[in-house]
Design a protein that fits this description.
Polypeptide N-acetylgalactosaminyltransferase; carbohydrate binding; binds manganese (II) ion; manganese; alpha/beta; Spore Coat Polysaccharide Biosynthesis Protein SpsA, Chain A; 19 helices
């Protein structure tokens, strides 16, 4: 039995060696010593000297990992963190870790772009970019796949470096070992800082003129980078992001996302993908054209570094995760820039249903603090709708925003009203609740009549089923002036919000 096994191993070894030789001979690929490759090349009858460029291109196609990974030992890196049998594959990362580990680090994915994208051309000379990836306890297999997809599917000249910010993960080696891969640098925070401050740290050490922020569980698709860098090169105030395809959290299938979506939100500052408004959709004759977006999802985007710095980077008082995309989006639009989604750039992302890591201050509280900062700094009088939609935000601590208000003034940014009118007119201001009520003074009543009317008449007595004198705080002083038109004397504290009612009375409003 032993003998048979030994024979089998010997035969396999010989077959492997022969196979390797055959492969090398076929490919005229340099073996471990350059002289052998040269003699092989001559042996195959290529009398002329090898064109170095040609050989490089050929090798790029077939043997990318050998070239890219340098001294990095992928197998050992991944094997050290395999899922133990019996463990829940979803527990640690909120996606199926077993499936991710099984996939390998360089699988092929479908090119999900519109077919016309493949024929677009970009400048031969594009500036390079620093890729900034922050993470906290990311799974090794997803993190590595993110990095390798970047190295495999980007023109090497465009990748200045890949900066990993390890936001105080449990195992420092998750990050450190990866820095053996050429172009990959690893920075580790000495305490948990969160996504926002980690990104700023990455941006501050970046050496390229263009920053590319990337999430840590992504796979970039064919030609993802060129369209984005091209747009930013043409106008440095553009902030661009790809269409974000979906990587299934269960089986890691790569699924194309709709190309008709843009980023939007509701008044509670909850991000959502929404259809491009119909007029814009009709006007789009070319599916490769950029899509203007009111906000970006925030995980993946490209931005000029000097523009990022000019605008004051991020609000570094925001913690862990959430809300920073609104703050950045408002800032970019209101301070002279623009946001776009580029349909010819596609990046897959594992969307999860929960955060696998914990928030030191609690998830909800952190989100409220961050979005409240965004609302307080940027939303002017419209922040009242944020508070109505998120009453729990009232009274929650959010720190000082004085610096950011100063910055906003210094940058001469436009008011939020401008943003509402020009960037996101589709976001409806909540209808001011019609004050279906009666204001009584003496025998006279000012009362609502149907949806559109307001009338002053003798009170109809207690028979009316309308609520009497709904007391509300006034929104604006002018409301009172218009009420005064009716010769109505308001007592100090009986206050009604008349604005929406009065607007509808013909001849009363200027
Ligand atoms: Mn993510």
């Amino acid at each position: 039995m032993r003998r048979i096994r030994a024979n089998a191993i010997a035969i396999l070894t010989v077959a492997w060696i022969l196979g390797t030789f055959y492969y090398l001979w076929q490919d005229s690929k340099p073996a471990s010593t350059p002289s052998s490759s040269a003699s092989q090349a001559r042996g195959r009858g290529h009398g002329q000297k090898l064109v170095p460029g040609r050989l490089e291109i050929h090798r790029d196609d077939r043997t990318i990992p050998l070239i890219l990974l340098g001294g990095f030992d992928e197998k050992t890196y991944l094997a050290a963190k395999q899922l133990k049998t019996g463990d829940d594959p979803y527990r640690e990362h909120a996606f199926n870790l077993q499936e991710s580990d099984r996939l390998g680090s360089e699988r092929a994915i479908r090119d999900t772009r519109h077919y016309r994208c493949a024929s677009l051309t970009y400048d031969a000379e594009l500036p390079s970019t620093s890729i900034i990836i922050t993470f906290h306890n990311e799974a090794r297999s997803t993190l590595l796949r993110t990095i390798k997809s970047v190295l495999m599917r980007s023109p090497p000249s465009l990748i200045q470096e890949i900066i990993l910010i390890d936001d105080f993960s449990t195992d420092p080696e998750d990050c450190q070992l990866l820095s053996q891969i050429p172009k990959v640098r690893c920075l580790r925070n000495s305490r948990r800082e969160g996504l926002i401050r980690s990104r700023v740290r990455g941006a501050n050490t970046a050496s390229a003129t263009i920053l590319t922020f990337l999430d840590s569980h992504c796979e970039v698709n064919a030609d993802w980078l060129q369209p984005m860098i091209q747009r930013v090169k043409e106008d440095h105030t553009r902030v661009v992001s790809p269409i974000i395809d979906v990587i299934s959290l269960d089986n890691f299938a790569y699924l194309a996302a709709s190309a008709d979506l843009r980023g939007g939100f509701d008044w509670s500052l909850h991000f959502k993908w929404e259809q491009i408004p119909i007029e814009q959709k009709m006007a789009r004759s070319d599916p490769t054209q950029p899509i203007r977006t009111p906000v970006i999802a925030g995980g993946i985007f490209v931005m000029d570094k000097s523009w990022f710095n000019h605008l004051g980077q991020y609000d570094t008082h925001m913690d862990i995760w959430g809300g920073e995309n609104f703050e950045l989006s408002f800032r970019v639009w209101m301070c002279g820039g623009s946001l776009e989604i580029l349909p010819c750039s596609r990046v897959g992302h594992v969307f999860r249903k929960r955060h696998p890591y914990d928030f030191p201050e609690g998830n909800a509280l952190t989100y409220i603090k961050n979005t409240r900062r965004a609302a307080e700094v940027w939303m002017d009088e419209y922040k009242q709708y944020y508070y109505s939609a998120r009453p729990s935000a009232q009274g929650k601590a959010f720190g000082s925003i004085a610096d950011h208000l100063t910055l906003r003034r210094k940058l001469n940014c436009k008011p939020f009203r401008w943003y509402m009118e020009n960037v996101y007119p589709e976001l409806r201001v909540p209808e001011q609740e019609a004050v279906s009520s009666v204001l009584k003074q003496g025998g006279m009543c000012l009362e609502t009549r149907g949806r559109d009317g307001l009338g002053l008449a003798e009170c109809r007595g207690a028979g009316t089923n309308r609520p009497q004198s709904q007391v509300r705080r006034p929104r604006m002083k002018v409301c009172f002036l218009k009420v005064a038109y009716f010769k109505f004397q308001l007592q100090r504290d009986s206050i009604v919000n008349f604005c929406s009612l009065i607007k509808s009375i013909p001849g009363v409003l200027p």
